[in-house]
Amino acid sequence: MKKIITTTKAPAPIGPYNQAVLTGNTLYTSGQIAINPANGELVLDSITIETKQVMENLKEVLAAAEMTFENVIKTSIFISDMNNFAEINSVYGEYFDNETAPARETIEVANLPKFVNVEISAIAVK
């Protein structure tokens, strides 16, 4: 059985999907991009600020499922330019303890929704 997880503290879906789905004790989040949930505007001032908004959106989706970054076991990071990896990784690292950080993959892609620079999804377990 699946439970749909939603929150107004993260961007509303822009297509036929949900912010996250909880099945059993496992949460699968949709990819988050740098949309400010308060006004629906993209936050693209810099790759650092953009990544921070992505992580804050992900944080709110986790919170809606009564989880935190401590529950995350796997992330997927999609970036439009591998040259931005160091800056993205630096912000991403602020949200995880190195000792218990999740498994991860980082993939460079040709384009992302709304032509943003970074999108991150997660799998978490209670």
TrEMBL record:
SUPFAM superfamilies with a match to the protein in the record: YjgF-like
Cellular component aspect of the GO annotation: cytosol
Single Gene Ontology MF annotation: deaminase activity
InterPro entries cross-referenced by the UniProt entry: RidA (IPR006056), RutC-like_sf (IPR035959), YjgF/YER057c/UK114 (IPR006175)
Segments forming a coiled coil: none
Organism domain of life: Bacteria
Family the entry assigns: Belongs to the RutC family.
Protein name: RidA family protein
Source organism (scientific name): Polaribacter pectinis
Lineage, opening ranks: Bacteria, Pseudomonadati, Bacteroidota, Flavobacteriia, Flavobacteriales
